Amino acid sequence: MSRWTHALVCFVATAGLLAGCGPSSKEDIAAKARDAKTRAALEQALGKPDDIGKLGPVEKWTYKAKNGKVTFILMGDAVTLEKTDDADKKN
Q1: pLDDT digit string (tens) for 18-32?
Q2: Most exposed: 6, 25, 37, 67, by fewest CB within 10 Å?
Q3: Residue 43 phi, psi (nearest 5)
Q4: Phi (first) and psi of residue 42, to 5 degrees
């Protein structure tokens, strides 16, 4: 295999892998977090949130998805609520 052919194959393979690294769908995020009942379990399942809002002991963790966003409400250490929004919805 020539040097250029080898480079092209590597480039295409890398591009294919990176394409799968983009944001997940809302459904994928919700499925990954289905059994997360605590702050630590949610962070382990999904990683750090894209946005955190706080109001006293209540936190709102938001994860961006390719088709919207998923928001989790945390009370203390407990994950209490999950909500999804559409990408085309204007807030």
Answers
A1: 445 667 999 999 999
A2: 6
A3: -65, -35
A4: -65, -45
